[in-house]
Amino acid sequence: MPDFTYEKSFSGATLTAGVDEAGRGPWAGPVVAGAVIFPNLEIPDSLARGLDDSKKLTAAKREALFDELKRSDALIGCGMASVEEIDALNILRATFLAMRRAVASLPAVPEFAIIDGNKIPPELPCPARFLIKGDALSLSVAAASIVAKVTRDRIMRDLAKEFPYYGWEKNAGYGTKAHQDGLKAHGVCVHHRKSYAPIKRLLTPDQMVNEV
After folding, report:
1. Do residues 108 and 27 share a domain?
2. pLDDT tens-digit readout, 185-205
């Protein structure tokens, strides 16, 4: 279970932000990043017991934890990069952009940031270190993973109301059979990532984008 070991060993700062993303793999929709600070590394017991890598939790549990985070004293930021930015920049650079936006949207400038994964976004406003599988090790990063995942899932459910052919309310834009069947029947829409190979193969000439 995650705890504050890395927050303390990496910096000991009173305003350490955990940063994580959701949505690098899907074929459609934005990539979303969350950033969370627990001031002075203080957290309600119920959150400390419940937070974990968002992928290990049910959708209902993630929603409940997200609501509890918003009621707590945690400082929360969220940022995203659009499909157009993903196609123009590539997914890694777009993810870094979403992370920078998430950190910039925090109510306070962090003194330090822990980034989930094995790379650090450039141009952050504070020192940072990466932490592989950070969402399973650090409470701050686990909280950020919840913020990113819940926010993105809500976006994809809303997009599914406008484009109901692809099953986004269930698959969040990943390349499931339902999504593939929708693409075969209805083609590519404006929310698809046209730089991704499975989508690129289905594009008409007027839908093509320049590769980075």
Report:
1. yes
2. 999 999 999 999 999 999 977
Backbone angles phi, psi at 93, to 5 degrees: -65, -35
Q: Per the domain annotation, does 210 fall within a domain? A: no
In sequence order, the 6+-apart residues with CB closer than 8 A to the CB of 24 are 31, 91, 95
| Ranges in the chain, pLDDT < 70 | 207-212
Describe the crossing of helices 59-71 and 139-162 by its angle, rounded to 10 degrees: 120
Shared domain for 153 and 175, answered yes or no, is no
121 and 179 inside one domain: no
pTM over 0.85: yes
* Residue 104 maps to a domain: yes
Nearest to 106 by CA among 14, 3, 196, 17: 17
Contact 22, 66 (CB under 8 A): no
3-class secondary structure, 184: helix
Please give the tally of structural domains in the chain: 2
Query: Residue 105: which domain range?
Result: 5-161
